[in-house]
From TrEMBL:
Pfam families assigned to the protein according to its UniProt record, in alphabetical order: TPM_phosphatase (PF04536)
Statement: the UniProt record of this protein carries the keyword Protein transport: no
Residue ranges with Gly residues bias: 262-293
Residue numbers spanned by region Disordered: 239-293
UniProt-listed InterPro entries: TPM_dom (IPR007621)
Domain TPM: 43-165
Coiled coil regions, renumbered to chain: none
Signal peptide: 1-33
Entry's transmembrane regions: 193-214
Protein name as it appears in the record: TPM domain-containing protein
């Protein structure tokens, strides 16, 4: 019996190599996602930094808040990011847990990485205009950073949750007033006449190109790719589809410029490993702020 060896043509070998690479990537992504912690409740304290009384109080507060209006806030602590930046990690975790309602995308994730001394508030698409990047930055720097530096993790997290709930319930004035009293949160001082001249001159001669470098130069950095300048929030980067772009909004609203790609569905999430709590199918496009202590 003669054994025949079938050799692939160059196009065939290329197609096979591409298929193998895609398969390896898919398996790699699956394994990577599996390393994310399970959603076991409204407070997932894997780092063990929240005392029992505060955890119980937070769990009840967040449950009551969600029942009243359907917005979903989850607090998570981990020991380490294992070398990953907190922004992509928080976004992956948010999407893995599917926080907020599908179609509403009204979830919020407060994440603390203990060993990395980093924290982030990740905001779902649907809440970016209410719990803005500026609000989350103020909460991190006013509530969390000072308390964490004093070793009071429970107190800092509890205060941050209180302020997030306050803003989401439509009462942001107190938080914004605190930001006005603290000059560290305001944009770099610049003469108003000079500012107007820069904007008009840049827009007339360079159009949108001017907006690519003026806010990062003179504004306050809220998080990677997000700046606050002259009462406007500017965001640079890529949308969920991978397309590059930028957007800006004035006042207290903060839009991302990209639409959500999440699909509809009920309150059941496939990311939870049992128990009586899960996300509802929501998503996030990277809105929010980060900090460190």
């Amino acid at each position: 019996m003669t054994t025949r060896t079938v050799s692939l043509s160059r196009p065939g070998r290329f197609a096979a190599a591409v298929l193998m690479a895609v398969t390896a990537l898919l398996f790699g992504f699956t394994a990577f996602a599996a390393e994310l912690p399970a959603l076991t409740g409204r407070v997932v304290d894997n780092a063990g930094i929240i005392d029992a009384a505060t955890k119980a109080a937070l769990t009840q507060k967040l449950a009551d808040f969600e029942t009243k209006g359907s917005d979903q806030i989850v607090v998570a602590t981990i020991n380490s990011l294992d070398g990953e930046e907190i922004e992509p990690y928080a976004n992956r975790l948010f999407r893995f847990w599917k926080l907020g309602q599908a179609g509403e995308n009204n979830g919020v994730l407060l994440l603390v990485a203990k060993n990395d001394h980093k924290m982030r508030i990740e905001v779902g698409y649907g809440l970016e205009g209410t719990l803005t990047d500026l609000h989350t930055k103020l909460i991190i720097e006013n509530d969390m950073v000072p308390a964490f530096r004093a070793g009071d993790f429970s107190g800092g997290i509890a205060k941050a949750v209180d302020d997030m709930v306050m803003v989401l319930e439509g009462n942001p004035e107190e938080l914004e007033a605190r930001g006005q009293r603290n000059p560290a949160h305001n944009s770099t001082p610049i003469d108003p006449i000079v500012a107007v001249f820069l904007v008009l001159w840049g827009t007339m001669f360079f159009g949108g190109l001017a907006m690519a470098f003026l806010p990062p130069m003179f504004g306050t950095k809220l998080s990677p790719g997000v700046y606050r300048w002259l009462g406007t929030t500017f965001r640079y980067g890529r949308g969920p589809s991978g397309s590059s772009g930028s957007s800006w909004t004035t006042g207290s609203s903060s839009g991302s410029g990209w639409s959500s790609g999440s699909s509809g569905g009920g309150w059941s999430s496939g990311s939870s490993s049992g128990g009586g709590f899960s996300g509802g199918g929501g998503s996030s496009g990277g809105g929010g702020s980060s900090g460190s202590w």
